[in-house]
Amino acid sequence: MTETQPNQNRTLPDRDAPIGVFDSGVGGLTVVREIIRQIPNEKIIYFGDTARVPYGNKSQETVTRFSEQIVRFLRTFQVKTIVAACNTVSAYAMEALERDIDIPILGVVKPGAKTAVSATRNGRIGVIATEATIGSQIYTKYITELNQNVSIYGKACPLFVPLVEEGLLEDPVTDEIARRYLTELIDIDIDTLILGCTHYPLIRSTLGRIMGERVTLVNPAYETARKLRELLTGRNLLCETPPGLGSNRYQFYVSDKADKFVRFANSIIKYGILSAKTVNIETY
């Protein structure tokens, strides 16, 4: 795949403008999938930072710098809003991003935290995520703001992202690692588990089987798409009619390995994604 520069001069009416979505790799496709399901008339520009994945073991300074580069790239499409479909970005970079741009930007942490507080029955909520997200205590902060009587138990699961990126969604190795990670949360008797990384819904069946039927799994990708619909509706930005034929309804960009991304994306979204274009994100 060759590098491409989008048309920076294109202008669109607000409602017709696309939504920008980005992630460190393929995990954000779970958010795209939910946006397509819940807000089917919207156009989407997706960027996956496949050259620099994972973000979960990087510093806050690095994650913020990467995120700012990606936001500058997405802004060249005159997007009407941006979804940071990455829990690590939501934990480390949202304050800087919100300060620097003049369009709405939505993370994935707050919607998931709110749903978990509503779902728990015994006040014991587990959070599985990358090391960065767990270390930031961002879920603990938001959940405690909503309900101080809830106990939050975080567990870093750093191997899940590379397993998902390699397509090992239904594999004995993934099953064994998941059991090792989740055992202590089962022993603590949590009744709600936040899948605190957008990669994790792709192994939801494995996680659900191990945790058991009494544990509610919270998928922030679903909750984020629902929150996005509310945001667009409230700002009169919701697109009410489907885009016309040939309008490049969904466009995908990556920083590396476009062919591999396309194969994986088609297995997740089932839309018939024909291509993804490679961008030198370091130039933004």
Give the proportion of residues in helices: 40-55%
Under the CATH scheme, which architecture of the largest domain would be assigned? 3-Layer(aba) Sandwich
Strand content: 5-15%
N-to-C terminal Cα separation, in Å?
19 Å
What's the total number of strands?
Answer: 10
Question: What is the SS-derived class?
Answer: alpha/beta
How many domains, in number, for the residues? 2
What is the H/E order? EHEHEHHEHEHHEHHEHEHEHE
Alpha carbon gyration radius: 18 Å
- Average pLDDT number: 90
- Low-confidence spans: 1-13
Q: Can you tell me the CATH topology of the largest domain?
A: Rossmann fold
How would you characterize the largest beta sheet?
6 strands, parallel
* Net shape: globular
Q: Which CATH class of the largest domain is shown?
A: Alpha Beta
Widest beta sheet: strand line-up: 4-3-1-2-9-10
Q: Enumerate how many helices there are, as a single number.
A: 12
Sum up the structure in keywords.
single chain; 284 residues; alpha/beta; Rossmann fold; globular
Characterise the protein shown here:
There is one protein chain. This protein has twelve helices and ten strands. The protein has a six-stranded parallel β-sheet, sandwiched between helices. The protein has helices at 29-38, 60-75, 87-92, 94-100, 109-119, 131-136, 138-146, 160-165, 172-188, 204-211, 220-234, 258-269, and strands spanning 19-23, 44-48, 81-84, 105-106, 124-129, 151-156, 192-195, 216-218, 250-254, 277-278. Strand 1 (19-23), helix 1 (29-38) and strand 2 form a beta-alpha-beta unit. The protein is globular. The longest helix is centred in the middle third of the chain and has 17 residues, at 172-188. The chain is α/β, with parallel strands linked by helices and 284 residues long. Helix 1 crosses helix 11 (220-234), helix 5 (109-119) packs across helix 11 (220-234) and helix 9 packs across helix 10 (204-211).
